[in-house]
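Q: Could you predict the 3D structure of Hydrogenase small subunit?
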Amino acid sequence: MSVDQGSQHVAQGRGGAEQRPGVDEVDILWISEGMSCDGDSVAVTAAAQPAIEDVVLGLVPGLPKVNLHNKVLSPTLGGEEFLAPFRAAARGAAERPFILVIEGSIPNQNIIEGDGYWTSFGNDEQTGEPLTLNWWLDQLAPKAWAVVAVGTCATYGGIHAMAGNPTGSMGLADYLGWDYRSTAGLPVVNIPGCPVQPDNFMETLTWVLFHAAGAAPPPPLDEMLRPQWIFGRTVHEGCDRAAYYEQADFAKDYNSPKCQVKVGCWGPVVNCNVPKRGWMGGIGGCPNVGGICIGCTMPGFPDKFMPFMDEPPGGSLSSVLIKPYGAFIRRMRGITNAVVNKEPKWRHNRDALTTGYDPHYRP
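A: Sure. Here are the predicted structure tokens for Hydrogenase small subunit:
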């Protein structure tokens, strides 16, 4: 079954055409103890469409009441007070449905010989020993209403999963299985980015919450479990430098406003909307501010995009092929530009009217 077919199945409910009833209140259990820098939690504080504060305060009409449990944003004093809803959910005693959000890549705990762990979240109440991220995933994922991976590390492994790493890190779907389904029948929802674009995350989370409320179908995901409407186009298709590529007008250094393919930009083949959406308040985004795209939203990142400053393998061929076309187009557009940069000849202050105006209907 494809993701789209699975989404339709979830929207109809397990018994046929009947819509799954919505929930009035939901917890978001956010664990950022994956192999991570907490950059995604920090990035999300900049979201505006909607702002995370608006969701938590109930200012978005139609959403269920949201209780957010995130260590960066938590109003608790930490410790056991913060861990309480996580422990209850792990025991199967959660007060309400919960969405599990994971930040950071998942290490392979099986490759450690003897004692030790890669990363942990809280301690075992009986032994005092650290509880690994893997333990929490094993307990929480089967009980979660939905599971969301935020950032490239959580979605596909990211920096920590690159060749030569000793941790065996992977993405959340690699760990749970790409056929994983939550209690609501949803696959892992992947929202990549290093860090995640804040509005991309909040927009997707809001869609999931509307689905939880029974007010929307499941979010449409592509084969890599990314939101289709966000990652369905490439950086190049939304880049304000794309016209330079078409005209074979390439930057030779990073100070140029022209297309940066020949100085290392992977935009033509990377699925990301940042040039179109910007970063904060519609401003920023890598190529928009002179940075090359290094493919940080992609499953193959970082290995398939290194060395970052080198011209992509296909860049030399495509730029050679487009060069004669681009030169011709530039010349033709230059001629047309010169023509349309001149005013029509009838705009003058002489006695005769020379616009060609002919009131032939007059006697």
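Q: Anything worth pointing out?
A: The domain at 233-341 is CATH 4.10.480.10 (Cytochrome-c3 Hydrogenase; Chain A, domain 2).
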